[in-house]
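Could you help me review a protein record that somebody else here produced? Do not assume that whoever made the record got everything right. The record follows directly below this note.
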Amino acid sequence: MMALQRNIFNLVFGINILLVFLLIFENSLVIPPWLQVMGRMHPLLLHFPITLVLLFLFWHFVVVKKMVGNDWIVNIDRWLLLLTAFTASLTALMGLFLSKEEGYDIDALQLHKWSGVSIAIITTIWFAYQEWVQKIPWLHYSIAVLSIGIILFTGHQGGIITHGPNFLLAPIESVSAQQEVLLSEAEIYTHLVQPILQTKCYSCHNDKKLKGELRMDTEALLLKGGKNGKLWDSAAPDLGLLISRVHLPLENKKHMPPIGKPQLTETEIRILEAWIKKGANFKTKLTDLAANDELRMIGQEKFSKSAIDEFDFEPASTASLKKLNTDYRVVTPLSKTSPALQVDFFSPAAFSLDQLNELLEIKNQVVSLNLNKMPLKDDALSIIAQFANLQKLNLSFTQITGKNLNQLNQLKSLKQLSLSGTKVSKEDLMTFSRLKNLNALYVWNTKLTDNEIIELKKSLKSVMIEKGFTDDTSIIKLTPPILLNEEQVITTPIKLKLKHYINGASIRYTLDGSEPDSLNSKEYNNDILLSGNTTVKAKAFKKGWISSNTIETYFFSSKFKPDSAVNILRADDNYRGDGATTLIDLAKGELNNFKSRKWLGYKLNRMESLLLFNTTVKIKSVTLSTLVDIGSYIMPPTSIEVWGGNELSQLKLLGRLTPPQPTAVTKGYLKGYEINFAPTSLKYIKVIAVPIAVLPKWHPGKGDKGWVFVDEVYVN
């Protein structure tokens, strides 16, 4: 037994010599792939020395002391210390190999690395001189305390590297911070988006660990992106890299967060998607959103229990709220449990001063008043000044001239005031120096000059004054047209509905999949009917502007709806939707959420499904609606076959299609494959789609099997 201990100790001593040597010449160290594999065992091994050293200390200072002279007990004591030294040395060596991979902050690693090596060396020396050390009690206890201290420090540094700064106390601080936030002050990024990034993303993308050359712990670095590019694109169908990686299959190595890390919840994904769709603004407040906005409702639910403004007034009566809500004026609570109210006016043509006067019935409860674009004149200011608890007032693009604007100084609680598009002057605004709570003043599209803005900022030092961006030399790019059609499945002819919010912008479109241009493509009008499978592409143009990006939407025609459907071969267990019903429910799957129950995913099996009609129908085409997301291994089928007939045992091949395969990774898209054939009367249709067996060499997952995703089969 002593010989075995001696041999293991010699091995441990050799590892320590190797550790010191490698640390000295670390800058010249190159780790081959097979050693990288060993390095990645570091997280697995590191638990052994921690457990063993604690077990040794308990055994040595509790058990051995009570059973002095028992050789068997003492021998276990020596084995525990030896195994501690062995596993600590091996863990440090594996960690050194792992540290040479990219993505780690060098400074953060240094402390973790040297403290880990220190544990290996200390425990090795402790074993070698154990009998001598035991004779000096103070030294013995000092080494024990030092070992525990270094282990705790090493573990803490490792936690910072792998889970991000302050990982240990983050949940407590998060709860504390949430409780301090008032709903009226909550910002979408700071209080909804950033906490998600902190808990799910910072651990791999911080100043200590830089996976993919990406840091996410500051706004500037979020906007910068990483080696794979920008994190989001609000105009892209899949919203860009961040959201597309979240929606990848869990087994995909590019799925984020990686497997083994806490995953995003459905609500967290909805928050990120909604924030990006709104332009990913870092300063927008929840109360800037409409009352029925998805993010606003999530925020009200999140903050209603712990972050409601502590208003000291009584809530308005239900009868008053019911009476004051009209088609042109909406009165809503600021949150579920708050007595504070928000009022929004609509339809300038229907507005009258009487509608404002009527609100005096709830003047103490109104904290937000939106009169944007209403034909409001200066005489209305005396009415508004009576809303004593008003915190947010929007008078943008009204007929306010600035006369009597000082009446608003009675609004001691006012925090935000928007006077954009009005005729106010610098002198009018100077009077707001008395409003101690005012922190934001919006004066876009006013006659104020840059010098006047500078003077205002000097007088209103605590107020953010936002004038907007003006630059006569810049050529601005148009935003894409907006598609207003909610339905993508055409059962009867429908009108194409396109819109652009920039006055004077023209929309050019094509229906054949070609790229629209300003010369040859038709200009959009309201009389365009869609009746069959159609690829609509549209683009906005305006003189003096850069033309917009192209929007593309595929409309699917469905003349005959099968009475039932059966999956002959089952879809993958993770992507089974609602079974074969998914194929005939006319519910389109979403591009950026293939985990929904609207998709069937096939990888191990080919798709083979049967559609059944109660009576004979005469058809001439079948369209297979699919998703193609190359980065997620979801590819076009290698072949599609349509079989049909009136007897299940006598189905005939009606048509076959071999879809072209992509040649590079692109953004995800929806694709319909139409198989045409001679008109045929039948009661049964069988559709077969075969997934790609081996992904091509250019694909990140080369050699793996691909997926086929289908949401609908349309019969025409």
